[in-house]
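Journal club side-thread
Mid-discussion, someone asked how the predicted structure for our own chain would compare to the paper's figures. Pasting it here so we can look after the session.
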Amino acid sequence: MSEKEYLMESADEVIRLDLKTDNEVTGRQALWAGIQPGMRVADIGCGSGKTTSKLFELVQPGGSALGVDIAPQRISFAQANYGRAGLEYACGDAQGSLDHLGTFDFVWVRFLLEYYRTGSCEMVANISRLVKPGGILCLTDLDHNCLSHYGLSPRMERTIREIMSGLEDKANFDPYAGRKLYSYLYDLGFEDIDVKVAGHHVIYGDLRDSDAFNWLKKVEVAPQKIGYQFSGYENGYDEFLAEFREFFHDPRRFTYSPIISCRGRKPA
């Protein structure tokens, strides 16, 4: 796949992003990071626009929000489903200049840097130009992404680790993006840096429909993008998928990922 191609791109991707977004969690994270009424907010890598809409609610009265995503189809979805006065969406690539967007009191970057194993440091430096002096930049991403499960068979555990390794090498994906966020803000000279570590994708007991859809899309789309062959399974992907479905729908299984949030204030 090319450097510009988004790893998880598919016809259902905007739906996956929308379903897996929990606005209650978004609200808690943003309040911890320092969002306040009256702020001008940018959501970089906004996906379906659902998170941007929550950020917009949190800066009322008097605030505004702009969601930015690289994909026109996701911007169209966001505009149709969440757009309103003071809440806007625009196409933009965080690997290039975003200076035309102006500056913001609060800039939010969640689940974006994991798709840029090389180049994420430069991307954060580029995004930081959007932050007003005295403004806040909040970075949030997963660590040990998709790698923490209990109840897997040995061959499935080996297969998932091989897939994740292949995603690193062939798709520039970073399963360990979260642990790097603090250093990015530190190296850029941000002040009042704070870090929060919590559980994400904490799945046990009965499986929610949104988690089933999210994870089955992950195992459907990502391995295909790197041409993974599933050599550990006599009948290839179909056999792997059947075993993964059985594992994931078993209420005994346990799955989680650490989520790391890092916020800092740009020197005035």
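Post-session note: Residues 13-265 form a domain with the Rossmann fold fold (CATH 3.40.50.150).
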